[in-house]
Amino acid sequence: MTQPRQRKVRDFRLPQIYAIILIDVIVGSAVGPILPEFVKGLQRPQLWLSAGTALFLGMQLFSAPLLGKLSDGYGRRPIFILSSVGTFLADCFLLPVRVGFYFANRISDGTTNGMYATVRSAITDISPKDQLFKNLGIEGAIISLGFVLGPAVSGLLLTTFDVVQGNQAKVVAIMAVTLSCVNMLLSWTLRETHPNPPGVDTSALKNELIQSLNVHLLWSRLTAKDSKYLGLKQLVLMQLALTFSIGYYNYFVIFASFGELKMDAKAISYFFMYFGALSVVISYVFYAYIADRINQQRAIFWLAFIGVPVLGGYGLVGSSLVWLYILITIDCLTLSLIQGLIEGLMAQLTTDEDRGEVFGINQALQGLGSFATTLIFGALSLLDLRLPFAWFAVCLAIVAWLANQKLKKL
Fold this sequence. Notes:
Blueprint: H1 13-31, H2 45-58, H3 60-74, H4 76-92, H5 99-112, H6 116-125, H7 132-160, H8 168-189, H9 202-212, H10 215-228, H11 232-245, H12 248-258, H13 265-290, H14 296-314, H15 321-333, H16 338-348, H17 355-383, H18 387-409
């Protein structure tokens, strides 16, 4: 008697992870335009917004390595659940439109935002080697799509229900809380991508937390990993310089609102919708059909090299929306593609044993870089709102230089 053939269970983990990322970014981009409401009426509002952004990004300095270590020891799924709960609580803080709750949101959301080290580890766990660049590239495209849908959903909600000015922030916050609930459900039902985790000793976790707050130790750990995975340090340095340069993502709302462009919330939403939609299309085509067929190191050099004058040009657009849209189009074709290439090269150097830890160290250094670049552009903006773009351009030039140095070693 023949045994009945077992039906193969379809693996939906990758699409589910993509859905979690998409919702998380939608929530983050949807609440972005309402954050100025929390500092409205304060002196130098751009400085308070910059301080909140620095706090949000700086929290990753300790949370990313800690969450990465936990994901190696206990699995990726518990970290997804923990992060989704933290984001839900962070969005609840936005319901009272008060400056104190704004900073509480930045602390809570910044801490759980460290999950992106776990996200990349989980994607790498279940990706065949020949599809790694594609899957990580799709992650980047989904993030861009979230930046489109976030403002679009907010705008549609406020327009459909004709919400008056004073209530707009609260209505968008309620929507964010609702979507965060959906992410908690998706995270809870996600099947583990890192089976049979060995666990983590309590003392090891305590040591991880202490180490993550010590920049010197972070660098020492990276150096140790570089001896195991040759070339890792240079990739992390490249990504750190890129983090400095893409600080303009966080600075743009300040620049567009208070600079010569004088863009209101609706104009900013339209801009991000265009930026995100174009970035989705270009990123998908690039990572699905091109990234695996080219020399990735050489591509990073040229994309960064061409992107330098684009970043400098943002500070020179004056009040011209035409030039702004021309520059963002070139941006999508150049520097916006770099991060996925660096992450793909980095993922190829890691193993199941310590992938979460490596990505955690990297994200912690990115958190430090984001914190530092936010303080820098905040200070420069007090002198002249155009000055931060010179800083961003210099940092991207360093990415090109590091990529060129790596090419010389090949």
